[in-house]
Design a protein that fits this description.
Blueprint: H1 35-47, H2 49-65, H3 71-82, E1 86-91, H4 96-109, E2 112-117, H5 148-157, E3 162-166, H6 172-179, E4 184-188, H7 199-203
Parallel strand pairs: 1-2, 1-3, 3-4
Helix pairs in contact: 1-2, 2-3, 5-6
Length: 213
């Protein structure tokens, strides 16, 4: 074990921060927290109407439906409770069928939305320096790049109140979040190998993934 490794929350077995029972380990972030920094975050919840509302609505949904509603149902409930008038959807084009199913639910609930696929603009991957040998379909000519920055800017133009990501690639999701203006959540995390259930790799860590320990 590394002697100088900095221990943080993932090393904790007490989780005393959940009920403040005082049984904090020596490395606990809550125990050593800068109180000015804590107050700074509380001031944001108090003074920013949008962010404060998101925090309260999220906590309310957790309290009302914990372990009862699916992620899709909770997302619909969140949209309704925050009063979002227009929802933006940034989707991978490979998950358009899933996005379409979700928008049918939005239609039924009377929720307005605007969907942008990742290949919007149809720019070849070579434009950002991707050689043919790194394309999915090598030797087949044009292969459009994902453009999450453009997805974000198009949703910004639509002045969406709330955005939902559906299956954006690792890294592309980071670029989207960096450039989008409205608060954003994730409905589907892409994992082709595990049917978009990445936590399955962690649950299987005692088996075939034990090599990562």
């Amino acid at each position: 074990m590394e002697q100088n490794k900095c221990l943080t929350c993932s090393a904790c077995g007490a989780l005393s921060c959940k009920n403040d029972d005082g049984k904090y380990p020596p490395f606990c972030l809550t125990k050593s927290l800068d109180q000015d920094l804590l107050q700074e975050t509380l001031d944001i919840y108090d003074n920013d109407e949008t962010l404060g509302n998101i925090a309260r609505v999220s906590a309310g949904i957790e309290g009302d439906f914990y372990g009862q509603k699916t992620r899709v149902e909770e997302t619909i409930e969140f949209i309704k409770r925050t009063g979002a008038k227009k929802v933006g959807i940034a989707t991978c084009v490979g998950l358009i069928p899933e996005a379409r199913l979700f928008t049918k639910i939005l239609d039924k609930e009377g929720i307005d939305y605007y969907t942008v696929g990742c290949k919007v603009g149809a720019v070849d991957k070579s434009r950002i320096g991707i050689p043919d040998q790194q394309k999915l379909n090598r030797g087949c000519g044009h292969e459009s790049m994902c453009n999450p920055i453009l997805q974000a800017k198009l949703l910004n133009e639509q002045k969406t109140d709330f955005n939902i990501m559906i299956g954006l690639c690792v890294g592309h999701d980071s670029l989207f979040l960096k450039h989008v203006e409205a608060p954003t959540t994730v409905l589907i995390v892409k994992d082709r190998v595990l049917c978009h259930n990445p936590v399955g790799a962690l649950y299987a860590s005692t088996g075939m993934y034990s090599r990562f320990k």
